[in-house]
Amino acid sequence: MRSLKVSDVMWNHIEPIRCGAPLTHVVKTLLHNHVTGLPVVDEHRHVLGFISEQDCIHALLVSSYHGEGDPTVDDVMFRKPLTISPEMSVVDLAQNLGAGKPKVYPVVDHDKLIGIVTRTAILAELARTGYGLELPRYANVED
């Protein structure tokens, strides 16, 4: 189990959020993909920020209250997200999870986004490999 890497459990099928995207697009993308947050990237896939459900909820409440129109991801994203390497051990990552830590981690190789890994994917893989639980592969689902 120690040799299991982030690249073994990451999800690389989702498109990240682009700078300038309207918040309504972000909300649709989060809900459609069943994730609690996504990295925000530039045209070269460099991670510039991270947008979460919580960020969207707050921004939509403020925007609707003040009648300001649709904010963009740039207005509300967190600008210094924690990124991880595809070579990082899943066990090491799991040992660092805790309260206040991200639920979704951008996976970056050579300064470019190559995927995301969720707590759900880590939990499922640890249960499968450590305890032999027969679980469906659903690394993209985050409750």
UniProtKB/TrEMBL annotation:
PROSITE patterns (UniProt xref): CBS
Residue runs in coiled coils: none
Keyword Electron transport belongs to the record: no
Keywords: CBS domain
SMART domains with a match to the protein in the record: CBS
Domain CBS: 10-68, 77-135
PANTHER family: CBS DOMAIN-CONTAINING PROTEIN (PTHR43080:SF2), CBS DOMAIN-CONTAINING PROTEIN CBSX3, MITOCHONDRIAL (PTHR43080)
Protein name: CBS domain
Provenance organism: Marinobacter subterrani
